[in-house]
Design brief:
Helix content is 25%, strand content 34%. The protein is of the alpha+beta class.
Length: 131
């Protein structure tokens, strides 16, 4: 079975794992997925991640983060989809929940959070929103 939107699949696996109170979830690896997971780690939405090497595609093991028994990730959603791409100019890049959440943008300078995109004055494709 082929997956038409691997990023949406990554976000769904993280969302479902967090709701089920899993310690970690495993997803097939790609460079873009690793960059997204790295941003989630840097912004303290997950505790850690590890790339497990195998003879095929490799796997990203994502260790979910909980505080007071509740998942740190309460909302994670894919915004731009293969069927409908959403692009924002840097002046249109807004804060998420007054800075409590993040949006991830694909820009000419790589994947950036909304904060970093405003700082560098970079617009791009709005990949997802997390809080």
């Amino acid at each position: 079975m082929s997956i038409t939107d691997p990023i949406a699949n990554l976000l769904t696996i993280i969302r479902n794992g967090a709701q089920a109170q899993k310690e970690h979830v495993d997803v097939p690896s790609s460079n873009l997925k690793v960059q997204i997971v790295k941003i989630l780690k840097d912004e303290d939405f997950i505790s850690n991640y590890k790339i497990i090497r195998d003879n095929k595609q490799n796997i990203i093991r994502i260790f979910l983060l909980y505080k007071d028994g509740k998942s740190v990730i309460t909302y994670i959603k894919r915004i731009s989809k293969p069927s409908l791409r959403i692009y924002k100019k840097y002046k249109e890049v807004k804060r998420v929940l007054n800075g409590y959440g993040i949006s991830i943008y694909s820009t000419p300078k790589g994947l950036l959070t909304d904060r970093k995109a405003r700082e560098l004055k970079q617009g791009g494709e709005l990949i997802c929103t997390v809080w």
